[in-house]
Design brief:
- This protein is an alpha+beta fold.
- The protein has one domain.
- Helix content is 48%, strand content 21%.
- β1, α1 and β2 form a beta-alpha-beta unit.
- The radius of gyration is 11 Å and the shape is flat.
- The protein starts with a strand and ends with a helix.
């Protein structure tokens, strides 16, 4: 079964590192972005 790919938008990406590593260890893909604008751009090029 394919795991979800997560788009995570937050202005403090450095603080998310432990959460991102945890999710990646569980097999999830994580694309962190630091703004809503960046999130919209990612949604245009990737499926979430």
């Amino acid at each position: 079964m394919k795991k979800a790919h997560i788009l995570w938008a937050d202005d403090e990406i450095d603080l998310l590192r432990p959460y991102i590593l945890f999710l990646e260890e569980k097999g999830y893909g994580v694309d962190p972005v630091n703004s809503g604008r960046d999130a919209i751009e990612k949604c245009r090029t990737s499926a979430y």
